[in-house]
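Task card 7
Instruction: Convert sequence to structure tokens.
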Amino acid sequence: MLSRRHIRIKVMQVLYAFNGNESDDFSKDQKFLLYSIDNMYNLYLLLISLMIEVQKRAETYLEKSSAKYLATEEEKNPNRKFVNNQVLAMLKDSEQLQAKLEQHKITNWELDTEYVEIIFKEIQASDIYKEYLETKTSDFNTDRNFIVDVFKEIIAPNNKLYDYLEDKHLTWLDDLPTVNTSILKLLRKVKKDSSSFHFLPKLYKDIEDKEFAIKLFKKTLLNQTTLTEEISKKTTNWDSERIASIDLMLLKMGICEFQNFPSIPTKVSINEYLEISKEYSTPKSSVFINGILDKLVKEYQAEGKLNKVGRGLM
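Output:
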């Protein structure tokens, strides 16, 4: 679920927040980095649980409607296509998923029921919902495609839900696009016979990704003086105070990757930090960062300092 780019963003944010001197005592900051990354999984579980709660809300709605003293024929015999949706049933009935929700203490919707109601009402009012209910039965593919559309068109872009998540954890706003994309991929790939673990993806693709996060953080933090000197040599015509703090941090991380990660191609490192700068820094930052990193790569190559293994990694 977690991409290398998002790992770089997390490292950048913690380094930027730390903004201190080199020190061997960075255990608290590393702990915060890993907590920030791990908390992304809580966001994933929170959004998955929201779909479960919306299904429960729909079921309650039908029960109350049919129990009315003057219930209409339609209310007595409601269309149960939504509450019987097979994908929602998979989520609701997964013991592994329920155990994971309990483990991470995902109980937000028990108190914040108004957000469940907001999403349920928006689904009810949507054309997606009306078209889906045109027939009372459907196959698994129809159920899956409906849930994909609901998540993509109603849940993911919901402004009130966005504000709610911002209030809960500020870092979730940066995580939200990645989490939403991961959920959509899982929904699109789910099959009728999918494993009960289908909706429990790994946070890190592998152990190497977690090690990458820790090493990038440590190496950048412990070598700030050296990295700053490297940048200063290439920015003699720049007023250091006019260089954006984010740009300096991204340059340090980029140089750190050149020097400490032999298996990562220099082009990959440069492209990653250019893309991050476009999102988090100034409009001209990507041009500035590209110029500095490109000069350093050529210099390291000429001096034989670029330690890269494998073909095509320069």
